[in-house]
Amino acid sequence: MLDYVWLIPLFPLAGVLVSALLGRWLPRRVVATVASLAVGASFVAALLVLFAMLGLPAEAETGANGRERIIPIFSWIVSGSFKIEAAILLDQLSILMTLVVTGVSTVIHVYSAAYMKDEEYYNRYFTWLNLFVLMMLILVLGDNFLTMYVGWEGVGLCSYLLIGYWFEKESAASAGKKAFIANRVGDFGFALGIMLIFATLGSLAFEDVFPAAGTLLPGTATAIALLLFLGATGKSAQIPLYVWLPDAMEGPTPVSALIHAATMVTAGVYMVVRCHSLFEQSLSALNWVAWIGIITAFFAATIAMAQKDFKRILAYSTISQLGYMFLAAGVGAYSAAMFHLTTHAFFKALLFLCAGSVIHALNGEQDIFRMGGLRKKMPWTFATFLVGVLALSGVPPLSGFFSKDEILYSGFGSGAVVPWLIGVVTAALTAFYAFRLLFVAFYGKSRMDKKVEKQVHEPSWVMLAPMLILAVLAALSGILGLPTLLRLGNAIDEFLHPVFAGSLVVPPASEGAAVEGGLMGLSVLVVGGGFFAAYWIYIRNWGLAARMTKSTQWLYDLIYNKYYVDEGYMEGIVKPLRALADLLSTVVEERSIDAAVNGLARLFGLAGEGLRRLQSGLVRHYALAMLAGVVGIVVYFLLRSVLGF
Amino acid sequence: MVPASYFLVLSAILFTLGAIGVLIRRNALVIFMSVELMLNAVNLTLITYSRFLDDIAGQVFVLVVMAVAAAEVAVGLAIVVAVHRHKDTTDVDQMSVLKW
Predict the structure, then answer these.
(1) ipTM for the whole complex
(2) What is the domain range of residue B8?
(3) Chain B: residue whose CA lies nearest to A612
(4) Which residues of chain A have pLDDT under 70?
């Protein structure tokens, strides 16, 4: 089975071709089924590959990773000494990502079949969704930086296409452009990093680069790591390039669930984890990763607390949770980062699907203060959403608790106390905004528009089933990473361990049961605090929020307006660039270059205009001209003989 | 013996008069006459040099020039007659269609 790994990306490719070429003439059900089956088959194939891998010993005789295989597909670039093989690097890390991507994708494809059923360009949606899965798989399964970059750009492209799915809407088209451009800035850094790797190490294949990472000069290693990380901040929406993700909510909700929660945004985390050998050569770069991660987490959580749009709250939540993953990567707790990536994929996708269910039922309403009381009208949605909120907040025994806690514990243990503290505070904020969202949208009196309220209904089973599946996963997947305290073994940690065996930065295994237990207790306490604050403000004292806002209006305005970062970028970057472009197009292009070229043409025209007047049509003028010529020649010869030249 | 320069100066003056006539006059026939004048001035020069250099070639060439002049006049007058039939004028300035 391992040799058939290439089937995993093949199924989505087939799906893309069918949807793209035949989709217009096929009935909707067929398009949706083909697309979903394509991804589903991919998932099944991934599972079979996993079982085959588990059958292998974790450690080979040489001590290397026994479950790692490189399966070549074809020779892509052969240009002198520059050779790139298109090959699949199959190891525990890539199969984990593959399973998460294909699994969540399958579920969301099924959901989309119902959610998008009234859309006109059904096949366009599924084409790009399948293309996205294909690109994500290329990113995750590639064995060299160039294929990873192909997948990286590919998912960025699909993200742009899907965000701008309703491109006739100005805001959606702009959001798509914003996403692509912000990503492009990051990709520029990523590309420079790749070029630097090639320039210093002479190869782009992971199996060549990572063992040779130790030969890099410290400055070079830092430069490479920071450039790569710039790419990660773009793709995974961290400071400074996170600005596209909240706008990306213009896209259809299943797209938000899949791309901007579960998969594409995790590509940055995957990349940092995959390149850990490079990052470890520069401890300052790792430091940056951890700090930017946790500061972004805190920053985004504060913004989420004041937002009114259902999806935007979830978008900032995603940015925040990704920050936690980068914190983990920055302290060397790679399997903790991957664990949180996995659980987050489940519960964040779940939260978004529930959002879609609500938005669908309320005919497009997304302002939570125009909802209320949905608990009774949409019980299933409420139940699954509650599971998602509990998981996001980190309430035991749901998965979010275990994964977030492992990150915080690693942070504390490796000495990053300040980031740990920020992480704990952010956890409280997370619980607050999550429960705020739950209470405002689902509890209390209905603040819905009367017409909308009359037709609020639960979605069909095609939409509910995926939500239920994700709810179960969000609730139970904590079992994959049980803390050392319980002495039941951390499955993910053990599974991924051979991948990180050579790691130079290892967070301590255990500080002791007391410390661990204490920290877990603190987490629960903090979450409880957040929950209680949300409860107090949004259930018991409904007017309190308004009064609190008024008393610190400046703070509220600052947070509600996302700290005016978008406006800052507009003034500081976009406007100067536009001014420069205007300058270049008028002064340089129009007045200088065009003027020169056109002027030259006009010069010839004028010369012609002037010369044509010689053709007066009057014979006498021609005769005169001839005479003048003859006289000239005679004079010349006379002078020649007289003056002797 | 009349000095050669007399003949040559006469010839030059005739040529100049002919040239001026070609440039200034508007009647096509008068222009033709001026051209004839120029040709004959050249003939005079050729004969002068034939006499003073004792070479018969000059006189032979004069005969050729006269033949050519005659042929040219025949064709030219035919053209003038044809144009006159169309435009009812021999004013050269009126025949300026082939222009910008």
Answers:
(1) 0.82
(2) 4-93
(3) B100
(4) 61, 63, 485, 507-511
